[in-house]
Amino acid sequence: MGATDPSSRPPRTDVKAPPFTYHRPDTLDAALSLLAEHGDDAKILAGGQSLIPLMGLRMGRPDHIIDIGRIPGLSDITVHDDRSVTLGALVRHEQANTSADVAEHQPLIAATMPWVAHRAIRTRGTVLGSIAHGDPAAEMPAVVLATGATLVATSASGRREIAARDFFEGYLDTALRADEILTEVTFPAWPSDAVGSVVEVARRHGDYALVGLVARLEIDAGDIITNAALAFFGAASTAIRVPTAEDILLGARANAKTFASAAQIVASELNPPADIHGTTAYRKHLASTLTRQGLEAAVATIGVPS
Ligand SMILES: Cc1cc2nc3c(=O)[nH]c(=O)nc-3n(C[C@H](O)[C@H](O)[C@H](O)COP(=O)(O)OP(=O)(O)OC[C@H]3O[C@@H](n4cnc5c(N)ncnc54)[C@H](O)[C@@H]3O)c2cc1C
């Protein structure tokens, strides 16, 4: 049988986005007016690194795309007097990765960025796009949970603040309304006694994690843990904290025995969904192992004895 002339094949439609109307507003107000007009039929386009693939797979079919990429003033990284840090809607992953301000004031974000996809994707994809998208296997939703960040949602009728713990409502589902743009995220000042780490297991470098952990501890001069956050990704339908394991850490010495107890609780509390990449049991095992490794990696930064 001879080869088929490619030009005689019917065009493939399965990897092309369905038709849509493209808008490129020059101001935030214009973008918000368009969103108010088209609501559920519209999607914001930031870096396009998640939205465009999803449309190609026909998992998203917005009639209107509102591209915020040319709106000035949305790419700022601001360090406030109290050392909290605000990122605007168009701060790219790679901008955060290379920012001296982020490295100095928000070490957990700096530690996270190299795990996010590949550099080519990081140069387009935005930090807030990742948060707004709410992929349960993405790193940044877990970072905002672990740090207690505050998100700002803006619509034509005003702005409102949403605590990170109230933001992620389900698989790719957040507290953002259809007429709102996520315009800012503010990370509270990093305490001087805080340590943190990001650990994950992925099949290949740059892939989404099978399971990952963002760990953050505050430890006093006597090696006692005074604050703890364990935020997992790839372990539930959203990024998720495990309060019972955090409670075990509170008031305990920061050592291997304490971390093993927390790891045991994580294994019993989490019930990660299975998919073609891993069973529930495998992901539980990963989450538990990563708990120990992540906590040990966190304290290693200040040399607390184990
Ligand atoms: C091969 C590949 C590997 C990847 N690996 C990883 C990984 O390991 N970890 C990871 O975290 N990510 C990964 N990503 C995703 C990447 O980080 C995306 O950039 C990110 O998830 C979304 O950011 P974006 O700016 O591209 O958003 P877009 O794709 O433009 O938008 C994503 C969604 O969020 C909405 N949205 C975006 N910005 C806003 C806003 N300001 N307000 C309201 N809604 C908004 C859009 O409407 C859309 O629904 C990967 C992507 C690819 C293609």
Features:
3 domains, 306 residues, Uridine Diphospho-n-acetylenolpyruvylglucosamine Reductase, domain 3, 5-stranded antiparallel β-sheet, Enolase-like, domain 1, Uridine Diphospho-n-acetylenolpyruvylglucosamine Reductase, domain 2, 32% helix, binds flavin-adenine dinucleotide, alpha+beta, globular, 4-stranded antiparallel β-sheet, 11 helices
Helix/strand layout:
Blueprint: E1 21-23, H1 28-38, E2 42-45, H2 51-56, E3 64-67, E4 77-79, E5 85-88, H3 93-98, H4 100-105, H5 107-112, H6 119-124, H7 127-133, H8 139-147, E6 150-155, E7 158-163, E8 168-170, E9 173-174, E10 181-187, E11 194-201, E12 211-219, E13 225-233, E14 240-241, H9 243-249, H10 256-269, H11 280-300
Parallel strand pairs: 1-3, 2-3
Antiparallel strand pairs: 4-5, 5-10, 6-7, 6-10, 8-9, 11-12, 12-13, 13-14
Helix pairs in contact: 9-10, 10-11
> What is the structural class?
alpha+beta
Determine the mean pLDDT: 93
In CATH, the topology of the largest domain is named Uridine Diphospho-n-acetylenolpyruvylglucosamine Reductase, domain 3
CATH hierarchy class name of the largest domain: Alpha Beta
Q: What's the order of the H and E elements?
A: EHEHEEEHHHHHHEEEEEEEEEHHH
So what's the oligomer here? single chain
- List the uncertain runs: none
Please state roughly what percent of the residues sit in beta strands, choosing from under 5%, 5-15%, 15-25%, 25-35%, 35-45% or over 45%.
15-25%
User: How helix-rich are the residues, as a percent range?
Assistant: 25-40%
Which CATH-level-2 architecture of the largest domain? 2-Layer Sandwich
Strand order of the largest sheet: 4-5-10-6-7
The distinct ligands, each listed once, are: flavin-adenine dinucleotide
Distance between the termini: 69 Å
Continuous helix count? 11
Largest sheet: 5 strands, antiparallel
Shape field: globular
Q: How many domains? A: 3
Radius of gyration using CA atoms only? 21 Å
For the secondary structure, the number of strands is 14
